[in-house]
Amino acid sequence: MDFLKLAEERYSVRKFKDEKVSESDLEKILKAGHLAPTGCNNQPQRILVMESDEAIEKLKKCTRCHFGTRTALLVCYNRDEVWVRKYDGKTCGVADASIVTTHMMLEAASIGVGSTWVMHFDPAAMVREFNIPENIRPVALLVMGYPADDAEPLDLHSKYRDMSEVVVMNEF
Ligand SMILES: Cc1cc2nc3c(=O)[nH]c(=O)nc-3n(C[C@H](O)[C@H](O)[C@H](O)COP(=O)(O)O)c2cc1C
């Protein structure tokens, strides 16, 4: 599919069929994340796949934005592997995890798997429930599944600022 068409048609799916994402679809989604660029190609991402009933029950203790998902990915980065900018010590960790998440979200959409990027989770609960080590930092939760027959985008989906407000030419 043409990329702009895919970008336009993708929306945050918040109502899923009661089934897991199939192994072959999950493989494609994870592969898309694997191909994502990262700062200095350090690939500090660590992706926790949640698909057992037990994992999903634990996930529900960490966020109310689970939308009844049967398959979710928690995208983290390894703090010890990120590229660091020498001028100000800023690291690429969040950006790396975010582009990995974006690749996976768009690949999912392209094969008919709906998803919502969720930031509204309790990171301390996530660490506790999934035994996440201190150096692994959670960034984004991708809840995924096959869209329910009556799934539809929220109004937010089609609210865009004018391009002239967000694109600045030559100087601020
Ligand atoms: C960084 C980020 C964090 C988000 N966190 C949440 C969240 O916690 N809960 C939720 O329901 N949606 C969340 N979303 C989804 C956005 O609300 C949604 O992408 C936006 O409203 C545009 O709608 P659309 O994805 O349907 O086009 C998040 C999206 C992004 C990119």
Oligomeric state of the chains present here:
single chain
Q: Name the helix and strand elements from N-terminus to C-terminus, one letter apiece.
A: HHEHEHEHEH
Which cofactor or ligand species appear? flavin mononucleotide
How many individual helices? 6
**Cα-to-Cα separation, first versus last residue:** 35 Å
Mean pLDDT metric: 97
Number of domains: 1
What topology, given as strand order, has the largest sheet? 1-2-4-3
Return the structural class: alpha+beta
CATH superfamily: NADH Oxidase
CATH topology: NADH Oxidase
CATH class: Alpha Beta
Binned, the helix content reads: 25-40%
Low-pLDDT segments: none
Query: What CATH architecture would you give?
Result: 3-Layer(aba) Sandwich
Annotation, overall tally of beta strands: 4
